[in-house]
């Protein structure tokens, strides 16, 4: 793990220096595909990880960034990141209500199960969808919207280093994602953007805002992408949620059955204690 961290740190450092030159690096992608460490479950199944450019970034960022993501999620948005690394991204709802967010989908294996469970409890949530997954599964985007949930742009192919690219590259990526979503649901409001890995930068925050989207982070992270099992996911969420929490979960990007199984218990608990909401589509 130490070595991985060092390598990652070096890669991230290079990323800032070299900018987009970090992007294509097939060998690392291979490593990501076969690795059994924490990166594996997160990206192994993720269709978006197939891009030549994505995996190295995913590989380099999934480890440390996602790890930081966990620390962030478990102890509040500011802990590990010092707060200012969020660059103003919202980490709470700003009200006593609690928001559940589901990232990286849609995925035909898990998204329908998540939707069915939410429907069972009459709870609305927010789906942070990946553009190419939206393009591949327009029916699921339609199902999400039809059920009254709100949408959040989660980039075209989950590029964790997107924030280190040029503003124009970022802008193209986010617009392409919105286009894919709106191809499925014309006119769908998309007023939230969540940076993959929570790897916020000033440019990515700025571009998202210029495009009318509010940067969305989170405050509770059960690390379900590490596949800890339904009981641990449930325990983490129900013990950490407080008024205003934004909960990060995943309905794609790996084996998410644990998340799906945990959701019923989570909803059973949270609906007794909080009002749950889909993040509004008209934030002001
Ligand atoms: Zn994600």
How is this structure best described in words?
The protein is built from eleven helices and seven strands. Strands 1, 2, 3, 4, 5, 6 and 7 form a seven-stranded parallel beta sheet that branches. It is of the alpha/beta class. Helix 5 packs parallel to helix 11, helix 7 packs across helix 8 and helix 8 crosses helix 9. Strand 1, helix 5 and strand 2 form a beta-alpha-beta unit. The N terminus is likely disordered. The structure holds zinc ion (ZN). Zinc ion binds next to loops.
Task: Please sum up the structure shown.
With 284 residues, the protein is α/β, with parallel strands linked by helices.
Topology record:
Layout: H1 2-18, H2 26-34, H3 39-43, H4 54-75, E1 98-103, H5 111-120, E2 126-129, H6 131-136, H7 138-146, E3 150-153, H8 167-184, E4 190-193, H9 202-210, E5 214-215, H10 230-240, E6 246-250, H11 257-273, E7 276-277
Parallel strand pairs: 1-2, 1-6, 1-7, 2-3, 3-4, 4-5
Helix pairs in contact: 1-4, 2-4, 5-11, 7-8, 8-9, 10-11
Bound molecules: zinc ion.
Zinc ion binds next to loops.
Largest sheet: 7 strands, parallel
Structural class: alpha/beta
Q: What's the overall geometry?
A: globular
Distance between the termini: 42 Å
Indicate the percent of residues in helices: 40-55%
Uncertain runs with pLDDT below 50, 5 residues or more? Answer: 1-83
Taking Cα atoms only, what radius of gyration do you get, to the nearest Å?
17 Å
Q: What value does the average pLDDT take? A: 79
Instruction: Output the number of helix runs.
Output: 11
Q: Could you tell me the number of beta strands?
A: 7
Strand portion = 5-15%
- Cofactors, ions and other ligands in the entry: zinc ion
Spell the H/E element sequence. HHHHEHEHHEHEHEHEHE
């Amino acid at each position: 793990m130490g070595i991985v961290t060092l390598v990652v740190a070096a890669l991230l450092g290079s990323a800032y220096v070299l900018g987009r030159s970090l992007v294509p690096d097939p060998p690392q992608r291979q490593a990501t595909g076969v690795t059994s460490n924490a990166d594996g479950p997160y990206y192994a199944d993720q269709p978006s990880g197939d891009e030549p450019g994505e995996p190295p970034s995913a590989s380099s960022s999934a480890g440390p960034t996602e790890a930081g993501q966990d620390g962030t999620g478990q102890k509040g948005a500011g802990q590990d990141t010092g707060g200012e690394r969020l660059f103003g991204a919202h980490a709470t709802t700003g009200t006593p209500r609690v928001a559940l967010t589901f990232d990286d989908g849609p995925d035909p294996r898990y998204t329908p199960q998540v939707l069915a469970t939410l429907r069972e409890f009459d709870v609305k949530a927010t789906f942070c969808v990946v553009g190419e997954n939206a393009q591949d599964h327009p029916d699921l985007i339609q199902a999400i919207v039809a059920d009254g949930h709100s949408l959040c742009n989660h980039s075209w192919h989950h590029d964790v280093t997107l924030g280190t690219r040029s503003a124009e590259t970022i802008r193209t990526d986010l617009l392409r994602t919105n286009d894919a979503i709106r191809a499925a649901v014309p006119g769908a409001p998309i007023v939230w953007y969540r940076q993959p890995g929570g790897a916020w930068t000033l440019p990515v925050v700025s571009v998202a805002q210029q495009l009318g989207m509010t940067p969305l982070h989170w405050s509770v992270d059960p690390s379900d992408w590490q596949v800890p099992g339904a009981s641990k996911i449930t325990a983490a969420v129900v013990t950490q949620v407080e008024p205003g929490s934004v909960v990060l979960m995943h309905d794609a990007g790996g084996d998410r059955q644990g998340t799906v199984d945990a959701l019923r218990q989570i909803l059973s608990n949270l609906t007794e204690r909080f009002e749950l909401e889909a993040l509004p589509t008209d934030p002001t």
